[in-house]
Every structure is written in structure tokens, then in C-alpha cells.
Write a structure and sequence with these properties.
This protein has a single domain, classed as YVTN repeat-like/Quinoprotein amine dehydrogenase (Methylamine Dehydrogenase, Chain H, 7 Propeller), CATH 2.130.10.10. With about 500 residues, it is mainly beta. The chain is globular. Strand 29 and strand 30 form a beta hairpin. It is built from 3 helices and 35 strands. The chain starts with a strand and ends in an 8-residue tail after the last strand. The strands form 10 sheets. Strands 2-28-26-25-24 form a 5-stranded mixed beta sheet. A 4-stranded antiparallel beta sheet has the order 3-35-34-33, with no helix packed on it. Strands 4-5-8-9 form a 4-stranded antiparallel beta sheet, with no helix packed on it.
């Protein structure tokens, strides 16, 4: 493997176009047939709008999966009926009510006191062919005011225990929003049928994500605008929060809120993010901006070791995964500036050196987004993404394209793809189309596509499980597909 020294002094190995000769997957027209398994509409409910799917598989029983997603009452039907819950008002968040903060459009239903914004949780015991909706005790007797909950994340430890984290809040009023809140964590020891009452993880709310190191059976949770990190062995007792960012003495730097930005194995947690500020790049990894920062910790964030991922062209958002089959082995995928293809890097020494990039795309003329990456227990890495599908002659990045919510980009139809690698990312299978048809464009109304900032993939020894939100049923619904790893044709 040719390596590149990370850090301030980086040896570049060519442009993005040149990377194709090293291992490009997914030339236009080369995609594989549809997988033989059926896609499943998990939520099957048009009275709510679902998104931000997360999936976990039980390592003791791979037939057992848990599926969690955001569940919102802001539907087409609610808007058409002119239900006051779907009237959108500007709410100042992040600065203590009307003192500072940023104005965000929010539906009145969030503040109505009933279940307008909650989390949908489902369990399966037949590898996702059928699903049962289950209940989580929110609000709990301990926190009766915290009725709102969302931004779920779910993982499973090696003993088959599932852990679910989520923002848990009292929405308050539009004038004085979020007077009380916490990141709550519940767990299930019976395959996801029943769940414990939430306990506070200790970090600030907003976008909580969990990952699990099954080699050490340690659970990690990170959340909040400043991205605080905690860890636990049982989901009940958590370490003191540590900042994932840091300070150069004059300024505080934060990686911000992301999707699949952290993963853990063999006692090390890794976190990857993009920085565009020159001072932030100088602090984190040295050298010029922009930069992709890869950092690891073995003490739950008390200390970090940081390195630059040697991206060879302007880049978009990264995603990453830790290899549970090999210590210090991590794989990172970074979108190019146009979001049309991924550069995939791997490191065998926790970020000190990196491979040359491999390029992955299903179509280099279309935009990709909502990517997620994960490893199987045996070292197979999977990458999934969505691809926007503009009409012939339509510019997917045109200013006139209607925004579809934060991180959502232009409101266009899309489909879902996945590819796997059996060598850590040096070569990939041809991209396989996961969704059987294009999803229609998202609701273009204000707030219309909120609550759908990511999709997900998880792998066991034999299958890849992909979850995403899809508008085909008539409103945004939670979809799923289980695909045998053997169905991914390896590129020669």
C-alpha cells in the first residue's frame, strides 16, 4: 500500500480525476441489477412524517433488528387541513429564548403539548421482513415535563442489548422555547420489545449520535452544538462530558453537528469532520484550510490525537467507520466539492499515514448526499448514499431550486445506492441500486423536509441493512432493505 504522511506536510498524489486509475467504482451505466430482497415500508403510516433512519442489528441474533426514526406531525394532510399545529412561526433557538440565538421556522405543534414530534421505534425478528412498532416510556415519571423527543440513534452491544439515545425536551412556548432538556438514553434487553425509562447522558441536546466499540463493549454518545462526548459501559452511568473540539487560547473550535462522524473499535474512538476556517485547521492539524480532520481518543475525549486526511481536491462532508476486525484500521469517505463522487481513504495506524484515494460514484454527473459508512464484524466496509435525480436539462444546483430543509439541498427526486469493499476501501463493488424506484421530491414548504438529515447502513457477517426516508407512499415514510453481501458484485 502506498502511504501519504498526514499532517502539515502532505505529499499529494494527483487530482481527483487522476484517482480514478487507482480504483474507481461506479462508472455511469455500470450499476448492478436490483437486489433480490424486497424493500420494506417500515413505518406504513401517513399520519406522521418519518426521517433520519437509524438501524442496529443484534450480534447474538442477526434476525433481530431495531429501527428508529424521527416522527413528525407536519404532514401534507395537516397542512391541507390548515391545522394550527402546522402553522409555522419563527422561533429563536440557541440563545435563551428571545436573548440572542438564531431564528428557525418551527410548527406550532411542537409547543402544543401533545405528540407532534416524537421518535418511532420498531423491532424485527425476521431480518427486516416484518416490523412491530414498540413503545418507549417517554415522558418518564422522573422527567414528566420532557414530552418531546427526536434525533434518535440506536446501537447494540455484543451481549445483544440495544441502546437508544435521543433529544428529550420540554418545547416550552415559541416565545420561551426549550426551558428544560436532556439527551436521554433507554435500553432494551429483549430485542427491542420493551425499553427502560430515559436516563440523562449528560451532554447538551441537538443531534445526539451513538456508536459502540464491541471489542471493549463501550458505548459513546456525542451531541450539542459544541459536540460533547461521553462514554458508558451500561448506558446508565456516563463519564463527564469532554469537548470534541478545543481552543488555541484565543478561540474555541468545534467540529459542529454531523451524521456518521464517529466510530469506535479496539479501545479507540475516532471522529472525522471538515473545517473551512484557517485558524481551525491550523489548530487541529496544521497547514492550510480547508481540511478534513481525523482524531482519535482512548480516554473518552480527555485527550485527542489529530491528523489531516490528505484529500487531493476541494471536499464536502466526510463519513467514516472503524474496523472491528483490525486494530487501528479506519476508513474515511469524503465527497468532492460538487458532491458527485466520494474519495475513500484508509489508515492502518490510526491516522498517521493514509492510502491513496479510491473514487466511488454511481453517476459522476449527479449529486450525492446523506452518506453513511459501517463495517461488518469480519472487516467488510459498506457505504450508502442518496443520489439526486434532476429532470433532463434541470440543474440540480441552480439557485432557483427550492431548498428542502437544513442539509437537504434542492428539492429533487432521489434514489438510494450502496457499495461494499472487502479490502478496507482499496476497491469497491459496483454501486447497487437499493431503492426500487425514485422517491419524489421532498415537500418544498417551509419546514417541509425538516427531520431528515441522514440515512444509514449497518452490516453483519452476511447482510447489509440500509434505511432511508422515501416520499413514494404519499408522505415521507421510513424504508428498509436487507441485502446479502454476496449480491454486491466485486469490481475487477
Amino acid at each position: 500500500m502506498q502511504v501519504i504522511r498526514a499532517g502539515a506536510a502532505i505529499v499529494l498524489v494527483g487530482s481527483l480525476a487522476g484517482c480514478a486509475t487507482h480504483g474507481q467504482a461506479g462508472q455511469k451505466g455500470a450499476a448492478q441489477p436490483m437486489p433480490s430482497s424486497a424493500e420494506v415500508n417500515v413505518t406504513h403510516d401517513l399520519t406522521y412524517r418519518y426521517g433520519e433512519v437509524q438501524i442496529a442489528v443484534n450480534p447474538k441474533n442477526p434476525n433481530n433488528l431495531v429501527y428508529a426514526d424521527v416522527q413528525l406531525g407536519f404532514t401534507y394532510a395537516c397542512q391541507t387541513a390548515r391545522n394550527p399545529d402546522c402553522d409555522v412561526v419563527q422561533v429563536r433557538l440557541g440563545g435563551g429564548g428571545n436573548q440572542g440565538g438564531i431564528l428557525f421556522p418551527q410548527p406550532k405543534g411542537l409547543f402544543s403539548g401533545h405528540a407532534f414530534a416524537v421518535t418511532g421505534v420498531f423491532t424485527s425478528f425476521d431480518r427486516g421482513k416484518t416490523w412491530k412498532r414498540v413503545s418507549v416510556p417517554v415522558p418518564s415519571p422522573q422527567y414528566p415535563d420532557l414530552r418531546g423527543w427526536g434525533d434518535p440513534s440506536v446501537v447494540a452491544t455484543s451481549d445483544g442489548t440495544f441502546y437508544l439515545s435521543y433529544d428529550n425536551m420540554d418545547w416550552g412556548t415559541p416565545e420561551k422555547p426549550l426551558p428544560k432538556s436532556m439527551v436521554g438514553v433507554s435500553k432494551s434487553t429483549d430485542g427491542g420489545f420493551t425499553w427502560s425509562s430515559p436516563v440523562p447522558a449528560g451532554t447538551a441536546i441537538d443531534g445526539p449520535k451513538m456508536t459502540v466499540d464491541r471489542n471493549a463493549d463501550t458505548i459513546y454518545e456525542a451531541s450539542g452544538g459544541n459536540r460533547e462526548l461521553v462514554s458508558s459501559k451500561d448506558g446508565v452511568t456516563w463519564t463527564s462530558p469532554q469537548r470534541i473540539g478545543g481552543s488555541d487560547g484565543a478561540r474555541q473550535f468545534s467540529p459542529g453537528i454531523g451524521g456518521n462522524a464517529m466510530s469506535a473499535a479496539h479501545g479507540a474512538l475516532a471522529f472525522v469532520f471538515r473545517a473551512t476556517d484557517a485558524a481551525a485547521c491550523a489548530y487541529f492539524v496544521g497547514g492550510a484550510a480547508p481540511c478534513v480532520v481525523f482524531q482519535t481518543t482512548t480516554d473518552a475525549g480527555a485527550t485527542w490525537s489529530r491528523h489531516r486526511v490528505p484529500v487531493t481536491a476541494p471536499m464536502g462532508n466526510p463519513t467514516m467507520a472503524a474496523d472491528p476486525s483490525k486494530k487501528d484500521h479506519f476508513t474515511v469517505a469524503v465527497l468532492n466539492q460538487g458532491d458527485t463522487q466520494f474519495q475513500v481513504f484508509q489508515t492502518n495506524d490510526a491516522g498517521k499515514t493514509w492510502s491513496r484515494p479510491t473514487t466511488v460514484t454511481d453517476n459522476a454527473t449527479k449529486q450525492h448526499y446523506h452518506a453513511w459508512m459501517a463495517y461488518s464484524p469480519t472487516g467488510v466496509v459498506g457505504l450508502m448514499w442518496r443520489t439526486r435525480q434532476p429532470a433532463p436539462g434541470q440543474n440540480a444546483t441552480a439557485p432557483a431550486a427550492t431548498p428542502a430543509g437544513p442539509g437537504g439541498g434542492p428539492a429533487l427526486p432521489y434514489n438510494v445506492w450502496a457499495a461494499i469493499s472487502r479490502d478496507g476501501g482499496a476497491t469497491f463493488s459496483e454501486p447497487l441500486k437499493v431503492s426500487s424506484a425514485d422517491s419524489p421530491a421532498a415537500d418544498s414548504a417551509t419546514f417541509g423536509n425538516f427531520g431528515d438529515d441522514y440515512s444509514s447502513i449497518v452490516l453483519d457477517r452476511d447482510y447489509a441493512y440500509v434505511g432511508w426516508a422515501d416520499w413514494r407512499p404519499g408522505d415521507r415514510s421510513g424504508f428498509f432493505r436487507a441485502i446479502k453481501l454476496s449480491e454486491f458484485e466485486q469490481k475487477h
